[in-house]
């Protein structure tokens, strides 16, 4: 999707965005991209979708400069996902969103000096030394607004009341996937509020890409969501190939589609096992890991990797498929189909599991859309958000498969959807595996790849939802700005709403059922 940005005047921005949301029904805020536009100043790109028609538009807003500050009116009142998306932009670019009730850093320490994604940021460790002391904590946050004379004002807000009982779940905790901190306010065992804290493994991938050539950026994608490595890299290759106008051979499209679905099987099998393990059920974990090995064997013989898949490249694939790939994938499909019912028999139909999952982590369709909870977790709320259907790529418009949805809106529904989605992945693979055409597995590119000037956005259906890539190119061999839309950030953002009034033990269930991966969030 080449972006043709709508530009609003600063005085009408809030009203025009409200009009897009309410009158235009652009109810899904896909992402907010903060960017240093150079001489234009700091600003944001907003990508919006109408969930009825799947039409997408982009809006560009340059921040107003007031003294040394840069400000943009918040859209938090229109889309709930803007809560954390705007805090991310503030964290890295220093743009203050007027009217946002919680303008704290999201990834970096509260005492971090500067805004590292600005082009003029000095990363010299002598000027910005690594801080090894405990991070200062405050019971207050701040809201920024303009007074009647146009001056920036700040209003403090308390995060906790005097009698609030605050528990930190994570970051060093297996059920929070190792490095996620959920600052939870409890009333007895009942959840009142959850404040998520990120950045414990933040690596600055998006900033690193600005100094890498396009082929060099590919290695970083596999290490974000390592259970969607194929789709992550597919999205990055896709946006570059679309911008360059590269036409891929049918053989490449067939193989990419098959590999994406093998990766989905890999991820969902681990999900089935980890849901059980988080609740203390070991048997189901062993069963799913047993079968996942067969999936990894099929991928490894071609890609050479089992977790990190360095296979897609700009213009095609690193190498052709292994001579035994077709036979082994067909054998995998025949092997695994009978076991889908076994996962239900061993765990899914277990009365203890059902009591722990049913009616836990309720999320309505309206809230799923507003928070941008895509993938299986959003489809459990009845939202038809599958990128393979709404914005087809590769061969997904040429194969038959069902978009699995239900309206259970809870953790059990999220589990059931993964079971059914694995069946659809096998269905897609079986339609393609015997029909892979002859042809090139790589369309040769110039030694130095340069992308034409412009802005593009491309997304794929990852294992957990929409993985998208925004690219702003100035015609050079490196991206001017590369932004990944993570799958898990929106999932965790919704946990506060999902868990209010439920028990603290239910947080473990909800987190397991949402299936977020922290390196995907901590990019």
Automatic annotation (TrEMBL):
InterPro entries: NADH_Q_OxRdtase_suD, NADH_quin_OxRdtase_su_C/D-like, NADH_UbQ_OxRdtase_30kDa_su, NADH_UbQ_OxRdtase_CS, NDH1_su_D/H, NiFe-Hase_large. One of its GO terms (molecular function) is oxidoreductase activity. Keywords: Cell membrane, Membrane, Multifunctional enzyme, NAD, Oxidoreductase, Transport. It comes from Xylanibacter muris. It comes from the Bacteria. This is NADH-quinone oxidoreductase subunit D. The keyword Cell membrane applies. It is an enzyme of class 1 (oxidoreductase). Gene3D superfamilies: Cytochrome-c3 Hydrogenase, chain B, NADH:ubiquinone oxidoreductase, 30kDa subunit.
